[in-house]
Amino acid sequence: MNFRHLVFLAILVGGIARLAQDVWSLAHTPFAMPFDPITNTFRNFDRSVECTPKKLIHVTTEADVVAAVNEGRNNKMKVRAAGAGHSFQPHACADIMLNMDAFCKVLSVNATEGRVVVESGIRLKNLNLALASFGLAMPQLGLISEQSLAGAMSTGTHGTGLSLESVGAMTVVALEAVAGNGSVISLTGWRLNTSLVSLGCMGIVLRYTLHVVPAYRLYRREVVTPLAHVLADLPQRLASSRNYQFWHIPYSAYVVENHMSLYEGPEPSYPEHSFVVDKYMTHYLYLVVSALTVWIPSLSNPVNRAMPHLAPMHEFIARSDLALTYPPIGYESVRYTEMEYFIPLENANPMLKALYMFYEKFSEVCKVNSMSPVRTQKRDSITLSPANNMDCIIVSLVMIRRNNFEECAKLMQAEVFLPYGGRPHLGKRHFLTKLEIARVYGEEKIVEWEALRKEIDPENVFLTDYTKNLLPLDVTKSLKSKVVFA
Ligand SMILES: Cc1cc2nc3c(=O)[nH]c(=O)nc-3n(C[C@H](O)[C@H](O)[C@H](O)COP(=O)(O)OP(=O)(O)OC[C@H]3O[C@@H](n4cnc5c(N)ncnc54)[C@H](O)[C@@H]3O)c2cc1C
């Protein structure tokens, strides 16, 4: 056993102790995400959102949804469906909330045409399993698959890959929803594009028709690379594999790269599910190390610098969904909060340099204790997508249980993301005013979105105060005179 093994062992033991503490505390506060079974309180992933609906309805049929919407309209109560509570904003909170967990059937599969119809509450992880059983797969996924299908679609969930659009843009062909008047509507074409990132405001989605692809495997290679090498040939690297991403490690001169390419060779010799340590070594190392820095914050900086030297190189071949996403084990321990910005691809290099200078300049204020993903996305034509008409590099700020997240995130937003033309992920944290949202997303996009929203929901059954404060829906006509466009 050499020194590196000893350090790794020590970190592992500390991390396991930390995980055990979390399991113990969970056992003493029984709570199924996102709804507390006793109080009905909805809590999101990082516990930054907590709301208790006046009425919680566990949906099992279309009739349940229609009745809930009619009840909301007749009693002037706001209605929202909840997914898995993985948004970092209160998009799902309302007077009447619908738990869609049991509304999750796969209704039809046409493997030849690559079409499936599924109920909206299905969790992505269950959808992936169902698709695999038919020899099919999602062409794109984000970092996890805990989300509900509708939750992921409604906030524009993305993965990575310069030739790939967001998960919704690549898969959704049509949807059916219950509109504000209780009728069932079908949305396709431009109406679908306008409503897909709905933030919960374009009716309660019942079913999606998805375009899926034949099952595929990915060869995934994780490698620690000097940051300088990445910056030196950034465009080539970003385009180097089907799903390329790297993990930026604050205060370190290294990044962890993930290259993921289609694999069409013979079956791998190890069993498909033999993940845990061997395939996600870096990920688990990150979990335990990050958990330690929550205990001892002053460790953040040295630990981040040491991380790349401890992280072993790894490669494996796996079913696409297993290669693209991380398993959820340990999230309770490293419950984090996140802000994420989409930056025009042409600004990738200067923006990343500014980011690294930011970390040096503000290391005292920020003390960031986590790696953050850097990903890419091809432009799409979804109205409220942050990648609308813009190929992007996507950068996050991730912090684990840190009280000064807001202070640090506001600084980073102002110093790094906005100057390079960034648009925030609306499912994650950001600190923009309504008018700033209009400026970065485009006034005409807000107008387009609001016109369809009004058509679907003229009585504002789904329009909560949170959304009214987020988007300048009421002032769009006079925006031009109020906003100074850069
Ligand atoms: C650990 C973690 C990893 C993540 N990774 C990524 C990632 O890789 N890429 C990325 O882009 N994002 C990522 N996210 C963000 C996440 O994908 C989105 O916030 C997504 O919306 C969460 O889905 P959900 O099912 O939890 O929805 P919720 O957060 O519960 O709800 C989101 C919205 O969907 C609406 N909604 C839900 N169901 C319906 C329905 N049936 N009809 C109408 N509206 C509905 C809700 O009302 C709400 O407005 C991550 C989040 C976490 C916590």
Write a brief caption for the model:
The chain is an alpha+beta fold and 486 residues long. The protein has helices at residues 3-28, 62-74, 124-133, 149-154, 167-171, 189-195, 227-232, 234-238, 276-279, 281-295, 300-310, 320-324, 348-361, 363-366, 405-417, 434-441, 443-456, 465-470, 479-482; strands at 42-43, 50-51, 55-58, 79-82, 96-99, 106-110, 115-119, 136-137, 172-178, 184-187, 204-211, 213-214, 217-226, 243-248, 254-263, 314-319, 336-344, 372-377, 392-400, 423-424. A hairpin with a 5-residue loop joins β9 and β10 (184-187).
- Which strand-content bin applies to the residues? 15-25%
Kindly report the name of the CATH homologous superfamily of the largest domain.
Answer: FAD-linked oxidases, C-terminal domain
Major sheet size, sense and barrel closure: 8 strands, antiparallel
Named at the architecture level, the CATH assignment of the largest domain is 3-Layer(aba) Sandwich
Give the % helix.
25-40%
Helical segment count: 19
List the ligand species. flavin-adenine dinucleotide
Number of strands: 20
Strands ordered across the widest β-sheet: 16-13-15-14-18-19-17-20
